[in-house]
Specification:
4 helices
Amino acid sequence: IKNLTPKDAVVLTPIKESHLITYFSERKTVWDNVDISRADMENLAQDVNTIYTTNSETKALNLIKKYEITHIYLSDLAKEEYSIKQLEYAYDKGCFETDGREAEIIKVIC
């Protein structure tokens, strides 16, 4: 991730990977705001779930913009945790670039 994203990237990751991503890639994740309340954390968790599981590009983009996400990390853990194989809305669309790797880094371009 460090070599594939700009320094100001905000990466969507499952919460279980967020600290590792932040530490090793030196990139911010959506989970890095330590000052959020419990209610905000629950809303964030629900929104992250929606981004990973929705088939609606519009719904995903609204949440992506809300959190200023620039990249989505689609790791094996994300696939397992959210019971997905890919982000349905991120393929054959004009708003996302995929890198074609097994653990993908999807760039948001809209």
